[in-house]
Amino acid sequence: MRYDRSMRRGFGVDVGGSGIKGAPVDLDTGALLAERVRSPTPQPATPGAVARVVGEVIGPYDGVVGMTLPAVVQGGVARTAANIDPSWVGTDVAGLVHQVTGRRAVVVNDADAAGVAEARYGAARDVDGLVLVLTLGTGIGSALLVDGRLVPNSELGHLQLDGHLAEHRASDAARKRDDLSWEEFAERVSRYVRHVDLLLHPRRVVLGGGVSKKSAKWLHLLDVEVEVVPAGLLNEAGIVGAALLAEG
Ligand code: BGC
User: Fold this and answer.
1) Is residue 209, in this structure, part of any structural domain at all?
2) Is residue 102 domain-shared with residue 197, that is, in the same domain?
3) Ligand 1 site, residue 155, Cβ cutoff 6 A
């Protein structure tokens, strides 16, 4: 690990449906300070089992850790569980992580973490007014940023699109499930982004999540009016944003 005493650093852990990823982060630049550690998400992904893996991913780091969950999180407590085990609802996640790992944790929604990372270091940086960061993965996560400040726990992946939850139509998981071509996927994402644009009129939409690594294949196929750009931190934004939010 290459850091000196004056460096602001933190540690972020991103909990997803298939993997739990963590790394130390240089908070001045948003760069990872070591290769990220990844462990498979235990199945069933119950709170106790996940907390134990989070402890392994953290390793010897002993500062306050930032951790994401694919859920609405208020005051360290998970309030929803659309794509994770239902037993998370009502769990004091920060308390559980402390009990299991001995570390203090700041727990936030995964897309919110990605959003603050993009606002500080990435594609939502220096944009005034409303910027929307959408993460397309197992579900669709959203972060609303107003003049760079997060409005937490928006759940725009749960808007209705063609009579379905939007995340069941336009997420990366939906692309794989329905075996969509890039053209077909871009058409679904376009319909979704146009719908969100109609409701909120953001200045810019940043597209992140797992599929952002492949944006060269499909982003140019989008048919929308609002400015759409790929995420600057790709799929590492969750780790980076969690570490940043843990700094307080
Ligand atoms: C959850 C969100 C989460 C998103 C992306 C949705 O199903 O409700 O909280 O941000 O998936 O993981």
Assistant:
1) yes
2) no
3) yes
